[in-house]
Every structure is written in C-alpha cells, then in structure tokens.
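R.M. (postdoc): so does anyone remember the format we settled on? I'll just put the structure tokens first.
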C-alpha cells in the first residue's frame, strides 16, 4: 500500500502574506492538536503548509527574522503517481539468469521484476508473461518437426540464459510526481501492464500496474484565506477539501462530505487561526505569533482598513503581548520589508497582489499596491498603465484596476485600463486614462471595491 499522504494546508493563488502566514499557523496548530488528540496506537496525521507562488517580500522578511522555513511550493492538487505506486521495487541485475528471475517472482509473489545494471540504474523489466512467452516459443519447434527431446533441452537451456534475452526495455518510465490521470492514459496506451517509476538518477523507486490504476486517490487539503475555485490550486476538483478557514465571501468550493468551515467577517485569516489556537488551548510559540501578527497587520493595513474589526484589535493585542512588542511598530516594520517603490520591478508593483473576479460581463483583475509614498508610485504611472494594458490584452480581462493605497493618507488612487465604464459606473466616478482618481477612505479591495463591482 502507498504511504499515507500528509494533509496540505494552502492559501490562494498569487499568495499574499495572510495566505501564507495563515497556512503556516494553521498547519502548526493542526499538528499540535493531532499529537495531543490522536488515540494511542493510531497513526498521527501530518499537516504540511504549502503555497501556490513566490513569497511576498514581507513574508520572506518575517520568516527569515524568526527562523521559520518557507512553506513548500505546490503546482497543483491532482493525484500523483506516488499516490498509487508500490514503493518497494524488487530488482535483479541484468546478468541474472531467467531461473533466478522466476525464483524472485515466486518468492515475493509478484508478476514482474525490475532489471538494473550493477549501479542500480534501470535497464528494463521482466514479467512472468515474458518468461512464459520464451517457453512457449520453444514448443513452436515441435511444429517445425523438432523432437520432444530437442524442445525439452531448449527449455532447460533457457533457464540458464540471462534475463536480457526476454527483458523489455521499451516499458513506460514515469516520475513519482507525474499527474496520475496522465500516467494512466500512457500506461493504458502501451502493450505492457506495468510502468516503472524512476528517480532523478534513473534508479527505480516504484512500480505502477494497471491494477493499481483502479484506485482513485484524492489528496486531502485544507484551504485557508479562500474558498473560491478560481483562486484555488489547479486540480482542486480532484482533491478532497477537508477544512476551510476564511474571511472572504462564500464562493464556490464544494465538498462531498460535511466539513469544518470557519468563515468570519474579520480582517484576516490569521485572526481566525489565532482564535482557534485559543479555543483549543494550544500555546502560540513566538515565531508563530510573529507570523500571525504580521498577517493581521498587512491584511488590515495596520488595523486602519475598514475590514479591521474589534476582534482583530483584540487578537493584535494578544499576539503583541506574546511577543512583547508594540503592535503598530511591529506592523510598520513588516511593511518596511516591502522596500522602495522606485526600483521595484513593474510586474511586482502592479500584480504582486492581484486577484481575478468573475463578473456578469467577464473576468476582471483588481490589483492593489500599498505604499507610504503615493507620489513615488505615481511617478511610474506611464509604465504601470502600459503593463496593465498588456494584462488586459494577454488575459482578455474586461479591465485591470490598480488601487495604489496610501496607508498614511488612508485612501487609494484608482488606475484603470480596459473597460473603464464598468468601474466608473460602479463607483460613480470618471476614471480616465490619465492621473487616476483619488478615493478617500478606500483601503479594502474586498469590502470597498470587489463587492461594489460584483454588485454593479
Ligand atoms: Mn486574507
């Protein structure tokens, strides 16, 4: 049987600090709970934080400062070859005799043995069927008029031949991380029942047979900071969502079974994760408290965003208490990891924090760049607009709206490319192709911008 797989805890695509930090915090909590609550003798489940993209600079800064490993990057949640392969491969070297191969298969009760060279590098495969074919071919000689004795001695001679005589070297070889659905098609398309799983050095680490393909495993996943298919890892429909922790609108991720789904209208997913630590009576170590506090601070723009609630304020006090820091100073330090706006690459500046939304008129992209110096960002307006027009063109967006949010002045400058009419209608403004429009008090993409565009 394949090994049990860890349960992946992951945030949305194009991750922000909250998506990654909430995954780290929640995976830590779940592992602590698993250790505490799993009955003796039962296997303790393992939760692994993951991310769907690069670390935002503030996340990289906080993780480095507190010595926390960055979550692994995953590309999708499709079932993999490793989910069904038999990991312990029985091998023989290419100088083995047919009779040895036969004995090995009898001893281990298997239908195929993988052949390697003396360094353990894959050469081919010998199956019971290939050996049987060799023997049957000997009996063909009867029809050509050979005596039974001659056939019998050919059969006996065959036992001494090396496996190379019958070995097949055209068998499909695959990687353990290959998508299972793709490997399935390839295995069914070849004349042999087996595929051999090789590592980077060309050494066999597993075998997959057509029988193994009858299984349809699903990767278990906990979603944090999203519950929308569009924002989730590719292959989400092939995975089993076992929990959701989120503070966004309820969208379209669906499950077969009832699950724990915690959704609260608070400023960050990290806020909910912190509440869960307290609900379960699990202590928050300082590095985890730092990660969570950083996420509350970035998602609520140091508690200034209208999405910040009294619950967030209380959680911030609690986490700052664990760390013994002033929360506002801590928050500003986190923002400082983002660095200057002048030399930031244009793709980062515009789309590091961008989200797609599906409207009745098509897909739109709403990006946000938070700054303490609006002027220095607006110096780059021409460059930003050109990049936004490229996004409209290449992705077929209705529009790309960039909110340049000044966290000190507490408002956002709107820049829009594409179908500006939709934006102008939603906000009753007149965004043109130049200068942008100052929106005082608008700090929250979710609450003040996306919601209005989706309603319009
Ligand atoms: Mn969030």
């Amino acid at each position: 049987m394949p090994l049990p797989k860890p349960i992946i805890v992951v945030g949305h695509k194009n991750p922000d600090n909250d998506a990654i930090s909430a995954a780290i915090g929640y995976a830590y909590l779940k592992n602590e709970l698993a250790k505490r609550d799993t009955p003796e003798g039962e296997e303790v489940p393992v939760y692994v934080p993951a991310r769907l993209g690069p670390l935002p600079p503030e996340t990289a800064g906080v993780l480095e400062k507190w010595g926390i490993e960055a979550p692994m990057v995953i590309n999708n949640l499709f079932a993999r070859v490793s989910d069904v392969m038999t990991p312990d491969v029985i091998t023989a070297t290419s100088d083995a005799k047919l009779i040895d191969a036969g004995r090995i298969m009898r001893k281990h009760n298997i239908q195929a043995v993988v052949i390697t060279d003396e360094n353990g590098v894959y050469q081919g495969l010998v199956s019971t069927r290939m050996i049987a074919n060799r023997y049957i071919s000997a009996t063909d000689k009867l029809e050509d008029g050979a005596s039974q004795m001659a056939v019998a001695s050919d059969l006996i001679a065959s036992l001494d031949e090396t496996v190379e005589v019958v070995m097949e070297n055209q068998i499909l070889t695959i990687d353990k991380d290959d998508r299972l659905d793709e490997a399935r098609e390839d295995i069914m398309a070849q004349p042999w029942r087996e595929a051999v799983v090789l590592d980077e050095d060309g050494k066999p680490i597993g075998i997959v047979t057509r029988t193994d393909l009858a299984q349809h495993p699903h990767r278990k996943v906990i979603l944090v900071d999203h519950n929308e298919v569009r924002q989730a890892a590719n292959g989400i429909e092939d995975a089993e969502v076992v929990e959701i922790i989120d503070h966004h609108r309820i969208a379209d991720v669906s499950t077969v079974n009832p699950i724990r789904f915690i959704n609260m209208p608070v400023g960050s997913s990290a806020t909910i994760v912190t509440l869960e630590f307290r609900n379960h009576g699990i202590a928050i170590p300082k590095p985890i408290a730092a990660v969570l506090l950083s996420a509350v601070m970035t998602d609520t723009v140091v508690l200034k965003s209208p999405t910040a609630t009294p619950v967030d304020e209380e959680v911030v006090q609690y986490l700052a208490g664990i760390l013994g820091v002033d929360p506002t100073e801590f928050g500003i330090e986190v923002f400082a990891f983002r660095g200057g706006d002048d030399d930031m690459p244009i793709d980062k500046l515009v789309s590091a924090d961008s989200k797609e939304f599906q409207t009745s008129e098509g897909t739109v992209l709403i990006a946000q760049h938070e700054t303490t110096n609006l002027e220095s960002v607006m110096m780059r307006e021409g460059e930003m607009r050109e990049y936004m027009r490229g996004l409209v063109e290449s992705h077929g967006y209705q529009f790309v709206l960039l909110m340049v949010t000044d966290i000190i002045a507490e408002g956002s400058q709107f820049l829009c490319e594409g179908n500006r009419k939709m934006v102008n209608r939603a906000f009753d403004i007149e965004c043109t192709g130049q200068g942008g429009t100052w929106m005082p008090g608008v700090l929250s993409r979710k609450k003040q911008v996306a919601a209005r565009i989706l309603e319009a």
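R.M.: ...and that's the designed sequence above, right after the tokens. Also worth knowing: The chain has a mean pLDDT of 93. Residues 18, 225, 247, 268-269, 299 surround manganese (II) ion (CB under 6 Å).
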